## 1
Amino acid sequence: MAKIPVSTGLLAAALAVVLPAAPAVAAPSGDVQLVGEATLPHGLQFDGTTVGGLSGLDYDPRTGEWVLISDDRSERAPARIYTARLTPNEVRLTGTAPLLHPDGSTYPKGEVDPEDVRWDPRTGDIWWVSEGDRAAQLIDPAINRSKRDGAFAEELPLPENLRMLPETGPKRNEVLEGLTFAAGGSQVVTAMEGPLLQDGESPTDAHGALSRITVQSRSGRVLAQYAYPLDPVFAKSPTGGSSNNGVSAVLADRDGFLVMERAFVAGVGNSIRIYRITTNNATDVQHVPSLQDASVQPVRKELLVDLADVGLSKIDNVEGLAWGPRLPGGRRSLVLVSDDNFAPNQTTQLITLAVR
């Protein structure tokens, strides 16, 4: 299969600033421990691009290679992926490639907003999701498959209730954030960050909300859609500024999924919680027009870890979640990445957790 070209001129500059391994601090259940964390320098230049906005990642056990996706909307460089080699305390970028249209052209500024990425367990291609937009024009979200070099392969049909329509569909910036494969790669699973317009108000410090998780076949047929219960925002802004909470990643687990909720409160900071969920006995809501006041059974969730409990040096805007290689002793590694929004006061952070 085709390899993403290895960059040559700037590999030395691509070495991460390595943080000393933090002491392993167990979460209350003892099921999750911090193994290590590393950061990339702000504004790192790599192969003609500025590295930042990393909002999703995934590990290929066949090659040991990681893929990361930037949510740069072709504003600093064409929308793109990176490849890397990771250890718990170091990240080395090995390549980059632009994501391409069917005609081989790059995406123009503002047309696409990449948010999550996965290796295809069957073909070795990459799948990625784009949020779309609800601003000057309506741009539908998208679920795409690309070759390892970024060449376009296909776009999965979108569930009708996830389309951007004037009065219904996703809210701006609360669209497709999570992507994973389930059932041995036969199912494509996506998660909305927040509720659809017709599903009610987004979370506040007074109440949570219901977003949607969709399960599709590889051809795009909707197999099921489930309501996901978002937590209320963890605090009220002391400055009267913005606050939110939403799903930032979904990841297939043994008997269900992991879902990461990312909250931000102006004047307070971020809260990142990862839940184990099961869809057993949950209502299939694909034909429920509105979840607001609807009688449905959401998925059941159980807290796996709150990142405030593991001893991190900083909790930033964590958006990506992926299983990594087995750790010494046999535990699974769970690797997270934060999106620095290309801002100097934020951090591109790679976090490795051990999960029992």
## 2
Amino acid sequence: MTLAKRFTAEVVGTFILVFFGPGAAVITLMIANGADKPNEFNIGIGALGGLGDWFAIGMAFALAIAAVIYSLGRISGAHINPAVTIALWSIGRFPGREVVPYIVAQFIGAALGSLLFLACVGPAAATVGGLGATAPFPGIGYGQAILTEAIGTFLLMLVIMGVAVDERAPPGFAGLVIGLTVGGIITTIGNITGSSLNPARTFGPYLGDSLMGINLWQYFPIYVIGPIVGAVAAAWLYNYLAKE
């Protein structure tokens, strides 16, 4: 498969992730707009409050990721995440000459996902829903947020290594297991950091918000440092544990 085709697959895959994942968060916030909140930490609505909302958002991510892996995984590997690409390169499972093209493709796809969602919904997608942008929630410090993102991405990458990278993994389950893992992580840490686990996933909404006069870039390092550290640590640990 040519690099051009794999580049295109990464653009399309990351577009799908960012349109449907953060898009679900936007719709949740727009539905809840104007409703009374029990506290500033809770964005939730309905009988289950915030937990129910984060589960729904997590499932949107899970299904989008599973769809991308099953449809495009055989073409590009469906990284759709710079942290995954860097982690695989760090253990020699991905060629260094293709790291930058993959990351560029992922950022382009993420930007397209957010900008087209904004075009579909209108300005309220940003002014009310923030385009699903991630940021630390009230009471969560910068260091806490980086640690949270690192732990969440550590789990994600460990699962990727076990079900998708390891040649001994049973075939056919990678998309389902990886998607559900992301959904579970979002349900747990969504109300702490927004649960990005992915620099590109955060980049897209930040870019779209910037065009609407909303500046969140001071938080961007959280979603670069945390995911990359967590993914690289998990890849190296799995490599160590799986060696015969």
## 3
Amino acid sequence: MTKSVQDYVEGKSEEIANLTQRDSFRRDFLGNVAHELKTPLFTVQGYILTLLEGAANDKEIRDKYLERANKGVERLTSIVKDLDMIGRLETEGMKMNIQTFNIIELIQSVFDLFEMKAKKRNITLRFNRIYEFPYLVKGDVERIEQVLINLIVNSIKYGRVGGVTTVSVEPYNKNKFIVKINDNGEGIKQEHLSRLFERFYRVDQSRSREQGGSGLGLSIVKHIIEAHNETILLKSVHGEGSEFSFTLEKAMK
């Protein structure tokens, strides 16, 4: 009887602790969402109110304020889209369309997509070497493209002006490749590394918001890679740069 009561009490204590933790997590999440939405909303509202109060009569000011308001709307759209995606990932899981594809070709297509964005910061996107043959992997090509986009765009945003983003594909073991995205930017301090994949976690709040984005990109990346039953890794030295890497299953010939 004593053991049964003790087991019951321990079970209930654990249940209460889990509920408390989930409630705290919910409050933090809602607070983060409100905080992320508030800045672009107030920005857009401020520009529109200024235009309504008479600034719209000046063409130069009107065009400038409409452009800035549009950037705020784009930021809001990005946040809402990422919130929708991460909500679906965590409640419904992720339906994977597994197929064989050439990871080198996919990386090159992402390079091409963001070539102009990289040029604006004078950043070079390149492979570590010439890949003469395809590297065939198995995965959901659209999801892996999203992973590459998030990681390469991050390397452009936070890389050093005039720097380099280098991508390599290497054997990880006999069944897997590892894809590495390296930059020679400012790097990340050690105390931030363990939390970087958390939703809304930002190393530098002001600089991150200035660069845009939803604060959910790395969390989405982690979900996608783990849905493939693969591993994502991060190495960084503050002042020298960062390396994000993830594994993918080889497609057997």
## 4
Amino acid sequence: MFRIAITILFLAINVHVFSQISFSEAEVMIQSRHIWRGTKLGDAPAIEPSITFAGSNFGFNIWAAKTINNSYAEIDLIPYWQFGELTFSILDYYNPSVGEKNQFLNFKDGECRHSLEITLDNYSGEKNRIKWMFGMFVAGDKNEATGNPFYSTYLELKYPFAVLGIDAEPFAGLTPFNGFYAEKFAVINSGVALSKEFKLSSRLSIPLILTYTYNPYEDKHFLTFGTGLLFSTEN
């Protein structure tokens, strides 16, 4: 199943499409903890590099994370297409198991460490203040009890605004049914992110991010801080 999904992914990203894109930005962040959709992954600070190539309506992002104590690692390949205010993305998550021999191109059942999610969002649009995202796993997300896919689904709302020169982004996310995130309908991710960029030059900046996250389903609170370097071709 996953071989088929990966084949479809890379057929969609053909040589002609890649010839239409160019380097857009590169970033290296250090996060005090890696929090993803209300869940802490790893138990130490994480280094998170990324690089993006973009064209008129297509882009490709490579993102990674690795904690300094090797408790968590991840590599994501993310092609995306923009249609007006909407962005459609395909995310290939690769999560190697700690203490095991992992191979990126190993897609054997029971050994494959990839999962595939499709998302639709309006995060990059400018017309609407309320931002939303819909994501659903389509491969690599199996119910071990039944052997069937969970199709784990995540819905998120954001309401970004600025105050005193600081960008604020309240957010809330939920899952509508049993899956990876929870065993039932549940709000799993809420909080607010505060961020500000300090320009070093027209293309180089230092982002600072302070995020409070609360997972109501698990009743867990997180306060995280991130900083790094961002290089962008856009002035």
